[in-house]
Write a structure and sequence with these properties.
It is built from five helices and no strands. With 99 residues, the protein is mainly α. It is globular, with a radius of gyration of 15 Å.
Length: 99
């Protein structure tokens, strides 16, 4: 399966944009000191949890490791289809926000 990134790297589109680059963008659009790149992750997690999406899907999307070391060792499920559906919902949600 081909990896498609929302924010691909400038030099290698198969790698994500660097954290420093995201920080530069935040500064350029006038949100320095009010927003961080990591804050986008907090927002995604909060909204998806509020909408009742499964915590395992959200944590997997955020690339968090399962805190239960036994389950984490044996469970290699990626929840790809469910995460795809969840992120499509989130994309539509963001697209429809009125400023």
């Amino acid at each position: 399966m081909e990896l498609l990134l929302c924010f691909p790297g400038r030099n290698d589109p198969n790698k994500p944009m660097s954290e420093a680059r995201i920080t530069q963008v935040v500064k350029r659009v006038g949100y320095d000191g009010r927003l961080t790149g990591h804050g986008f992750r907090h927002t995604l997690s909060t909204i998806l949890h509020e909408k009742g999406y499964d915590s395992q899907w959200i944590e997997m999307q955020l690339d968090h490791v399962d805190k239960n070391c036994i389950r984490g060792t044996y469970n290699h499920t990626q929840y790809i289809e469910k995460r795809r559906s969840m992120l499509q919902w989130y994309s539509s949600f963001l697209f429809n926000i009125k400023g």
